[in-house]
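Per reviewer request, we include the raw input and output of the structure prediction for the construct analysed in the revised manuscript.
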Amino acid sequence: MTTTSSRSGPLAEPDPEPPELPSVADLTARIAGNVQRVIAGKPEVVRMALVTLLAEGHLLVEDVPGVGKTSLAKALARSIDCSVSRVQFTPDLLPGDITGMSIYNRQTAEFEFRPGPVFANVIIADEINRASPKTQSALLECMAEDQVTVDGATYQLASPFMVVATQNPIEMDGTYPLPEAQRDRFTARVSIGYPDPGAELAMVDDHAASDPLAALRPVTDARAVRAVIEAVRRVHVGPEVRHYCVDIVGATRRLPELRLGASPRATLHLVRAARAQAALAGRDFVVPDDVQTIAVPVLAHRLMLTPDAQATRRSAADLVRALVGRLPVPAPAHPRG
């Protein structure tokens, strides 16, 4: 396990008033520009990472080795002036190595709690599926409730709190599949993919002499992020859009190609991510296009295909796209109707 930390954590002074939505879009544009100095040619991946941050969620980055999964996580973390911890997941990692543990103090003759790396604003869980399911489960309470319970005592986590996990495809040697409960706690999953030739050539030029991560500086802090998240919470979701989200998630449970559809938690994540997507566009209300834009990254990783569906080489993402394409889209309504 490797754990590194930067900064001292959330600022103590009161948070500012939630900014207006145009200010939210401006702040996220600055973060996106900062991250794209490291991850070039992948604006949609960066946008989805920001949507997840504003939705108070957690991001799973899945792809083959060497395409920049860890660099994306590091760049996002370094763009925010807050506490950051990195955990290298390995087969011998234990749950206490993540959450912390009680240590006996001989001087006081009492047990003292030593916080683990999860007590930070941004947690980089590197190659999360190389640890055993038992160790992965140490994050379940953290990701769902923003708290940790050790030896009967409950400790609140920092705010904002975000887990950015990377993983290799399960076909690769030395990996364990993420448990269904673990996958369901990730708001979204993205794949970076190989860069196009132009972006790869630019990467060779930029990375040959120095590492862009080393020169990256924060463009905001945890206090400002908390204020932006509060503004996103106020984005209006009309009844027709809420029904649309419920219809999409409910339809996954009836697909014959799936043996496990999306959960009610997925519905909540879909609505929260749609709010964040609208805020990135500078709007204070959600439209069906926002839901359609984030449906695949929010839903696909939660679905489990039947063996027959796997044999046809159809992916969960393909099924979500087809589902969204055939469900009726709600008629436009007044934003505050």
